[in-house]
Amino acid sequence: MLWFYTLLPSMLPFLILSSLILHMGLLDPLLTKGEHIWRRLLQLSPQGAYALFMGILCGYPMGAKTTADLYRKGSVSRQEADYLLTFSNYPGPAFLLTYLCVGILQREDLAFLTCVILYLSSFLTSLFFRPSSQKRELQTDCMPSSPINLSEKSAKKASGSLSFGEALDASILNGFLSITKLGGYIILFSIFQVFLKKALPATPWVRYPVLGLMEITTGLSALSTSSLSFPVQYVLSLSFTSFGGFCVAAQTKSMLSGTDLSLLPYLKGKICCSFFTLIITLFLVKIIKVIV
């Protein structure tokens, strides 16, 4: 039901639209004008910035899927793809606002603070993994260096591009394949959690971290019914959400199929991001005491 009523209608249109944009070669005109901004702020090419935006707007695992799609097309280098995997997979705004803040925490007033904490943690993660020593290599690999190369690239795209109908058919097929994979992983991990709930001890500091690290939706739901105080629930909820859970890691791995990209950069990035989230949230709860 979670997949059918939430994931399917909220993510499938973005999956289809993103694939259509790539098939039709519309990405360069959309983002090339802000190239200097993406490179200076995040050290990304315009194509890499698109993967980041999709990850922010659509949520797990859209950032990884878009990165893999761009890498297959040769639009980003291996180095930039690995860099993107460390911080481009986000929990979507709809998940944060409706499911986490309203549904689980029942604190709509914490929506803005929650978004700031999680997105700030991801930005700090990007700084930690930024390949500054290879910046020149990133620039030469990801973007053409002259107008001649740009015109040659456009000519190749025009000669081998699909018609709108063909691109739309391919995008719909790709979107349904991806969304079905995600649903399968959510179902399998949710069933696995049923067995974990019976096997794990009742000790809160063992039970809820394990459930939260496996699959975030059911893990957060279980955490909300615990006897832990609200500040503790808030810290754990944001940390689990930032990490994404092993279910999202499995989804991300499936999105990388057909490429030689490794899941390791993603796992490193998620561990680092969840650590930043934990430290920032603990500081706000224990030191500043903005959450009661």
From TrEMBL:
Q: List the keywords (alphabetical).
A: Membrane, Transmembrane, Transmembrane helix
The keyword Transmembrane helix is assigned to this record: yes
Q: Which residues cross the membrane?
A: 12-32, 44-63, 83-105, 110-129, 172-196, 232-250, 271-291
Superkingdom of origin organism: Bacteria
Q: What is this protein called?
A: Sporulation protein
